[in-house]
Amino acid sequence: MIVEDEPLIAMMLEDFLDALDRVVAGTADSVASGLALVEAGGIDAAIMDVNLRGGETSWPIADALAARGIPFVLATGGAGDMIREDYRNRPVLSKPFTMDSVEKVLDSLVAAD
Questions:
Q1: What Cα–Cα distance (Å) separates residue 39 from each residue in 24, 67, 113?
Q2: Do the Cβ atoms of 39 and 66 come closer than 8 Å?
Q3: CATH says 6-80 is which class?
Q4: Are 46 and 65 in contact (CB under 8 A)?
Q5: What is the DSSP string of 48-90?
Q6: Tens-digit pLDDT profile for residues 6-53
Q7: Helix (H, G, I), strand (E, B) or coil at 46
Q8: Which helix (H) or strand (E) holds 37?
Q9: Where 4-aspartylphosphate occurs along the chain (predicted)?
Q10: Radius of gyration (C-alpha) of the chain in whole angstroms
């Protein structure tokens, strides 16, 4: 699952995941759409932008994923202090993304299981 409010970045991540033979369970651009995807199920992992449009943050989605034991990566262009304290141990994908950085962070999720 991808949570990203910038359409071009979301499309780039979808392309990266496709090239890495990963299947995108869905893409969300808001907390509401992200929570709906989590509720629908079928998610093995997520890449989530921390800050979304309109001042929203993805923490409610992170909470829902954590409650279900679904691993996730926090994507951010900012400093580490933007990450909520209880999620600072989660892998971080720094912007700008590269296919190599996406692959490495996703592989780290698999290794952690």
A1: 16, 12, 22
A2: no
A3: alpha beta
A4: yes
A5: EESB-GGG-BSHHHHHHHHHTT--EEEEESS-GGGS-GGGTTS
A6: 999 999 999 999 999 999 999 999 999 999 999 999 999 999 999 999
A7: strand
A8: helix 31-40
A9: 49
A10: 13
CA distance 79 to 86: 16
Q: How far apart are CA 54 and CA 67, in angstroms?
A: 25
How far apart, in Å, are the Cα atoms of 81 and each of 1, 50, 61, 71, 95? Answer: 24, 11, 19, 21, 15
């990963």: which residue's tokens? 22
Whole-structure pTM value = 0.91
Q: Return the structure tokens found at 80.
A: 């580490």
The overall average pLDDT reported for the chain is 92
* The residue to which tokens 């290794």 are assigned: 111
User: C-alpha distances in angstroms, 17 versus 56, 92, 97?
Assistant: 25, 17, 12
